[in-house]
Amino acid sequence: MTTSPQEPAIEFVSVSKSYGATPVLSDVTLAIAAGERTVICGPSGAGKSTLIRCINGLERHQRGTIRVGGETLTGAASSLRHIRAEVGMVFQSFNLFPHLTVLENCSIAPRTVLRLTRNEAEERAHTLLERVDLPGLAGRYPAQLSGGQQQRVAIARALCMQPRILLLDEPTSALDPEMVQEVLDTIVGLTDLGMTMVCVTHEMGFARRLATRMLFMDEGRIVESGTPAELFEAPRSPRLQRFLGRVQARP
Amino acid sequence: MSVLNAPLGGYGTQLAEGLILTLRVSLCSYAIGIVFGLLGAAAKLSRWRSLRFGAGLYTTLVRALPELLLVLLAFFLGAGLFERLAVSTGLALDGFSLSPFVVAVVALGFIQGAYITEVLRAAVLAIPRGQHEAAKALNLPPLTHLGRIIAPQALRHALGGLGNIWLNATKDASLVSVLGIFSDVLKVSSLAAAATKRYVFFYAVAGASFLLLTFVSMALLERLRRRLMPVNLA
């Protein structure tokens, strides 16, 4: 799967999804270029997480087309496998494997999916654990780490697969306040890898630092899209104005 | 074993052999129960409605009926039906007959399998959805997903329940004593008690034998638990 420069890394064409009678994504059309860092914000229930989880097929869309790196996402195992090979994911609740050490968490996929040898996989894991500023914790179990450390392990685990695209679904929402910053700094520190990043977050200051582009979603639709400066300083829609008024009024 | 003969009123050897038979029945039936339990849990968690229905019928019926009744049904109905079926389909020669030991351990294993099915099913369902999602997002092959992510965590959840069923299995093994063909520890004790009129003594010996099995089992289960849980996992 190669991505030509003009081909978007991620493309949604008229994508819709509903849970029963409740629509969660309504006719979403979107193109994200390779290397772009997109932050999705919006009120709860806007469909942000659903959108991001549709990109690697953790949720199935019902209508429309999703293409990732030129490959059309279908329910077929081979389509999912090809797309997931390019897409890493960081979850709100970390989802580390509790029975595996930090090192095993990071090396299991490179060993079983990429067929690296144990040494190669562990070397890569050590390099990336250092990158997320966690040297020396490789032998610990997730339960022995703080929330912020666990989330940074989860970031390293995703990076070990060398994805072109990294999805981050509210990566700091489950963290104690004093650990939020270390994780946000780690994520901002990844920008030099040149990955396409899509991040759902409620941290507006972080959004400004990370994003090359922002999307504002409400009620399953993309209401506004633009650079962080455009959205923060000149919100056009009343809904975004109200939203910003609320989140920025927070102490 | 003969050193035990004198203090046990001349029944030491028989009692020891009875205990070994009880242990053999327990171990074999439990192993068969694990197989039934794995199949049952897989069926209950399957996406196919007919498999879920079949497994539901199995666990409901087996758990509803008295175990003694099921063992008797196996001996006086199940084994005969199976033998006739095997002969009529040409899988076995005329006069084929199952050994009572096989009938007993399969019947007991079938019963334990129903309980193990429920324990394993609950253990798999206790694994947070995020574990499956992380495995999928990492593209782990299905066998790795099942074998390295789900099974080890499910085993930790299941260990308590499986230990309980094992302790029950050692006691259920004594059900075969009613069939009159097995000299398990309970049967030997009751024969010895009747022959010597020392009822309290020999039934106490039978009780102590089961207690011994339980103590040893608990010690082994605790070691297994410690081994599987190097740290207190969240």
Q: According to CATH, what is the class of chain B?
A: Mainly Alpha
Task: List unreliable stretches of 5+ residues of chain A.
Answer: none
In what range is the share of β-strand residues of chain B?
Answer: under 5%
What is the gyration radius of chain B calculated from CA atoms?
Answer: 21 Å
**Global geometry of chain B:** globular
- Count the DSSP helices of chain A: 9
Question: Average pLDDT of chain B, to the nearest integer?
Answer: 89
Number of strands of chain A: 10
Strand line-up across the major sheet of chain A: 6-7-8-3-9-10
**N-C termini distance of chain A:** 46 Å
Counted beta strands of chain B: 0
What's the story with the biggest beta sheet of chain A? 6 strands, mixed
Tell me the number of structural domains of chain B.
Answer: 1
Order of helices and strands of chain B: HHHHHHHH
On the 0 to 100 scale, the average pLDDT of chain A is: 91
**What oligomeric state do these chains adopt?**
heterodimer
Question: What order do the SSEs of chain A take from the amino end to the carboxyl end, as H and E?
Answer: EEEHEEHEHHHEHEHEEHH
- Return residue spans of chain B where pLDDT drops below 50 for at least 5 consecutive residues: none
* Main sheet makeup of chain B: none
What structural class is derived from the secondary structure elements of chain B? mainly alpha
Q: Please identify, by name, the CATH architecture of chain B.
A: Orthogonal Bundle
